[in-house]
Structures are given as C-alpha cells and as structure tokens.
Design goal:
single chain; alpha/beta; Rossmann fold; 2 domains; seven-stranded mixed beta sheet; 9 helices; 9 strands; 38% helix; globular; disordered C terminus
C-alpha cells in the first residue's frame, strides 16, 4: 500500500512550500536578484512544490527500509518518502510553515510521522553539535545559498557510515555544482546513480572522508598541483603570489 500511495503522491504532488523556504524572515524585492513569476511567488507567499523528481523519490524509497537511519537537509516530498518507509529519520529546515504543511498532509493521508524528527533550525546551527552517527543515507537538499550545501556535506559526510549513500539535489545550481565536481573526482566516493543534470547519488567508500590533507584530494591537485610543484622546484613559498 505504501508503494501505491507513493505513486499517487508523485502523480499529484502536494504543495508543501510557500514563498522563500530557506529563511525565516520575509524577503523584500530590493534585496533579491530574481524577477518575474519566481519573484512574485516569493513575495506573494504562494504555495508550490519544490520537491525532488519522481525518479529520485522512487530511488530513495527503494534504497532504505525500517532498519535505516536517514537524514536530510530541507524537507518536502522526500520527508514523506522516508516516513512511508518508516526509517529513523531526521529532517532539518528553518521553516516551521513547511513542517506544518507536511504534518497536515501526513495526517490527512494517514502517513505515519512517528519516526520522523523535525529540527526547525538552520542546518549550519544544528549539525555541528548533533550526535547522530552511522547514517545509512543523507539527502542534501536544504539551503542552496553558497556555501550551505558544502557546509551540510561537511557536517554529515562522516556521520554517514561506510557504504552509506549520499544524495545531492539541484546540481544545476553553482553552490551545489561545486560540491558535485569535488565529489566525482574523489575516490572516497563511488557513483551509484545519476538522475540527469539535477541529482547524483554516491556511496561512501571509506570510514572517514575528512581524514585527508589537501594533496590527497584530486579536485585540489588537478587545479593547484602543477603550480605547487613548479613553486617547489623554484624554492618559492607556496603562498607566494603567481
């Protein structure tokens, strides 16, 4: 029955988001670079669905079980997917209105939320001190302003167990694309599945991805290594100007 409801939800996605979901305060037209319908949606606080693609939702559903420990930054349809699978789940969002909409939709459709813990707080505030460990899957789909996707990755990567899955959404945005470029070059992460140009799932291949120095990271070496080797040959300080 959960699979049947999943398909129904994906066919008729609920409008769980209103206006700007990444901040708790109102946004003025003077401070944003948006225009047109996107700006009007935020300023008028219109309901909408900013959720993951259906194929990503099905992937999440098939990747976890009631034995899984999961975490996401952001909330929406993905939160309901984890609820349907009854994972031990934590969702982190600063938007209380969004949480209320999810709770109301779940109540009306008899989706159990008893194993979902909502943290209504900014991820950069909550994650550094949280004690969650041994996660089976992490979805990063929260605040997309730079550098929040990277901050979310930094504080969740080593809370993810070896063999666990990391899912990055909205790769088309530069703030997430930078993180994706780093990860796809790092052998500590192995590809699982790509969903077009928007979403990527990778598996954590080591116990700790942070137990490294800069020269062990292909992303850094490919962009800086040649310059560093030349500076060593010339006996220059590595912080010298080019």
């Amino acid at each position: 029955m959960n699979r049947v409801f999943l398909e129904k939800m994906l066919k008729e996605p609920p409008k769980l988001h209103r206006g700007e979901t990444e901040m708790q305060r109102a946004v003025s037209a003077q401070e944003t670079l948006l225009h047109g319908p996107a700006l009007n949606s935020i300023l008028q606080d219109l309901p909408g669905c900013y959720g993951i693609d259906p194929e990503v939702a099905r992937f999440l559903y098939d990747s976890v079980s009631d034995q899984s420990k999961t975490l996401e930054t952001g909330s929406g349809i993905s939160t309901l997917v984890f609820a349907l699978r009854r994972t031990d789940h934590v969702t982190i969002t600063p938007n209380a209105t969004e949480v209320a909409a999810i709770e109301n939709y779940a109540r009306l459709n008899q989706v159990p939320l008893d194993r979902v813990r909502f943290v209504i707080e900014s991820s950069d505030s909550y994650l550094p001190g949280c004690e969650i460990r041994d996660l089976d899957l992490v979805l990063i789909d929260g605040k997309h302003a730079f550098p929040w996707p990277i901050v979310d990755w930094f504080y969740t990567a080593d809370r993810l167990k070896q063999g666990g899955v990391l899912v990055l959404d909205d790769l088309q945005m530069p703030s997430v694309g930078i993180l994706k470029d780093f990860i796809v070059e790092d052998p500590r992460w192995q590809p699982v599945r790509s969903f077009g140009k928007r979403t990527l799932a990778v598996e954590k291949a080591v116990a700790s991805v942070h137990d490294v120095a800069w020269h062990m990271q292909p992303y850094v070496i490919r962009r800086y290594g040649r310059k560093a080797r030349l500076m060593n040959v010339l006996g220059l300080n590595r912080l010298a100007k080019p």
